[in-house]
Each structure stands twice: as structure tokens, then as C-alpha cells.
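TICKET: design request
STATUS: open
ATTACHED STRUCTURE:
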């Protein structure tokens, strides 16, 4: 199911206790993978009512917010690695979610044995490069306050790297997969007229590859920044055509007179993580036909 990037049980015998800070769509699937691999997995939620639903996929479930230094210290004190896969509940809470968690980690990590930090960031930090290719070497140029907060969060995390502690930033494309199908994401715009000409590139990554790449990063102690998107990058216009055709939906129209206000315009290269040895499970779009179609 997860391609050929296996071997964590045999190779990572020295890292057995892993925390997943923020256990939503991504975190829950990574928890299952790591639990199956034999690791001791502690997952977190900020919502006590979610504890029972998380218990089957973790060794331990803890209620903690990333900006609570005392609870974070307790959580991480005797752990080996942490995946930061938190997601802000809304646009107003980016600073209090992403940056405050990174700053709290910076405060508590020196008092822990954590050797590895992996963070699910976003390609949105690149900003607008006129639709050209960007690599991890390209200067970032966030175009919104929230994307600047994501950039500051990356910087804060990268500064935690030490000779005995790796920090890996994965800059994810748009996340999709089971229960977050492109059909579900785009159905509401079928038949609508959207601003712009639709020529901006559309960068996506399937959840199987997010789980696969996180497991790969953990197994190989990746450090530094890695983009994580699928191979196929087509324009929004082409993607929406493909989705509407596949699912028999009315096509989207474009209104080039009104410029699109999308905050990023880049084609994200995935070469670095592939050169490191990661093999994509879904290099192209995954467009399943629903069983009730
Ligand atoms: N959606 C995309 O297309 C996309 C693209 C690029 C990058 N990303 C990034 O990928 C990451 C994971 O996404 P996802 O879809 O798995 O997110 P998700 O399903 O929304 O889950 C987010 C998790 O973060 C937790 N959380 C929220 N605020 C927190 C805080 N202050 N302290 C600790 N935990 C907190 C939530 O806790 P509760 O259990 O209490 O709800 C939840 O478990 C996010 O960082 C997101 O920004 C997303």
C-alpha cells in the first residue's frame, strides 16, 4: 500500500518513541503507519472529546496545545522524535497555532531527548514566481501575512537543528486523498465562473505520499527543506476540466477581466526528495470513480 519505501522497523531501532503533535487528516494516517511499524506512538489533540476516536491508532493520546510549555515539556520529555502536523482552525489563528507551537518547541526541546523534528509545511511560502518552477533553493516570497507566519514557523523550527537533532521541513502541495477527493474539493465550483484565466499551476500531493514521505524522512533522518508534490502539475483550468469531465459535472468558466487573487503562482519541483530516494506512490492525479456512480 505504501510503495517501496519500507524498512523502518529494522533500520530505526534507536528511534522508538514518536509523538504526533496535531493528529488530523495527516497525523492519523501517519500514526497508523508508525504503530504498524512497531513504534511507540503518542498522538495529541486539543479536543478532549476526540480522545476515544484516536485511542485505536496510538499507544497514548494526550490533550495538549502546542503553545502550552508545561504540557509540551511533559509530552516530549522522554520521546525520540516529533512530527508537527498541526493545522490552524481558521485564518485568524495562524500565529497562535503554527508560530506559537514552533516557539514553544524551541523553548522545551533543549530539556528533552528529541533527535528528530518533522514538520508538514506548505508550498504557499514560495508566493508568486509568475508560474515558474521553484526548488528548495528558490528564495521564498510570501504574499500574505499568514504565509509569512508559515515562513517564520519554518525558520524557527530550522533553528532547532543540532548535530544530534535533525529538522525536516516538508513543503506540501494541496492535500487530497480518500475523504478529501478532488471531486469533493471542486464539486461546488462546477458550472461557476471563476476569476482569472486559470493558467496558474496547481500543485497537489496525495495523502499516501504524505504518509510515505514522512515515514521516509523519519527512517532516513532527512534534514532541511523538501518539497512534496506529485509529478503532474497542470494549470487550474486543465485540472478543473479534467475533474468536471471525469465526474460529468458542468464545466467551469473563467473571467480573465477580474484578476485571480490566489496568493501563490509557482510550479513546485519535487526533484530533491526523489533524488534523496523517495518514490512517489501517486505521481499523477488520483481520480477515483465513486462506487455509487
Ligand atoms: N490542506 C492542505 O491542502 C494543506 C496544504 C499544505 C499544507 N498543509 C498543512 O498540513 C498540516 C496537516 O494538515 P491536516 O489536513 O492533517 O490538518 P487537520 O486535519 O486540520 O488537523 C489539524 C490538527 O492540528 C491540531 N491543532 C490545531 N491547533 C492546534 C494547537 N494550537 N496545538 C496543537 N494542535 C493543534 C488539531 O487538533 P484537534 O484534534 O483538537 O482538532 C488537529 O488534530 C497542516 O499544518 C496544514 O497547514 C495543508
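STATUS: resolved
RESOLUTION: sequence designed for all positions
ATTACHED SEQUENCE:
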Amino acid at each position: 500500500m505504501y510503495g517501496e519505501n519500507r524498512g523502518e522497523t529494522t533500520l530505526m531501532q534507536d528511534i522508538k518513541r514518536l509523538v504526533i503533535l496535531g493528529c488530523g487528516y495527516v497525523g492519523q494516517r501517519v500514526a497508523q503507519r508508525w504503530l504498524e511499524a512497531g513504534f511507540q506512538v503518542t498522538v495529541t489533540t486539543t479536543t478532549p472529546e476526540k480522545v476515544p476516536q484516536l485511542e485505536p491508532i496510538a499507544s497514548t493520546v494526550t490533550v495538549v496545545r502546542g503553545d502550552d510549555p508545561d504540557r509540551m515539556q511533559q509530552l516530549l520529555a522522554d520521546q525520540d522524535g516529533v512530527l508537527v502536523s498541526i493545522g490552524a482552525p481558521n485564518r485568524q489563528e495562524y500565529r497562535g497555532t503554527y508560530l506559537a507551537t514552533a516557539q514553544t518547541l524551541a523553548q522545551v526541546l533543549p530539556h528533552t531527548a528529541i533527535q528528530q523534528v518533522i514538520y508538514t509545511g506548505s508550498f504557499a511560502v514560495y508566493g508568486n514566481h509568475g508560474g515558474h518552477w521553484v526548488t528548495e533553493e528558490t528564495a521564498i516570497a510570501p504574499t500574505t501575512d499568514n504565509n509569512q507566519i508559515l515562513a517564520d514557523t519554518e525558520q524557527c523550527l530550522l533553528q532547532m537543528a543540532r548535530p544530534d537533532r535533525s529538522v525536516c521541513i516538508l513543503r506540501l502541495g494541496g492535500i487530497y486523498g480518500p475523504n478529501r477527493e478532488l471531486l469533493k474539493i471542486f464539486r461546488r465550483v462546477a458550472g461557476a465562473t471563476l476569476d482569472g484565466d486559470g493558467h496558474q499551476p496547481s500543485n497537489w500531493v496525495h495523502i499516501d505520499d504524505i504518509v510515505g514521505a514522512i515515514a521516509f524522512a523519519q527512517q532516513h533522518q532527512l534534514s532541511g527543506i523538501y518539497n512534496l508534490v506529485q509529478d503532474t502539475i497542470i494549470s487550474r483550468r486543465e485540472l478543473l476540466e479534467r475533474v468536471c469531465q471525469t465526474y460529468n459535472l458542468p464545466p467551469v468558466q473563467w473571467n480573465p477581466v477580474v484578476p485571480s487573487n490566489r496568493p501563490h503562482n509557482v510550479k513546485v519541483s519535487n526533484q530533491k526528495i526523489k533524488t534523496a530516494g523517495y518514490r512517489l506512490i501517486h505521481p499523477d492525479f488520483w481520480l477515483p470513480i465513486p462506487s455509487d456512480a
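CLOSING REMARK: The chain is about 30% helix and 20% strand. The two ends are 25 Å apart (CA to CA).
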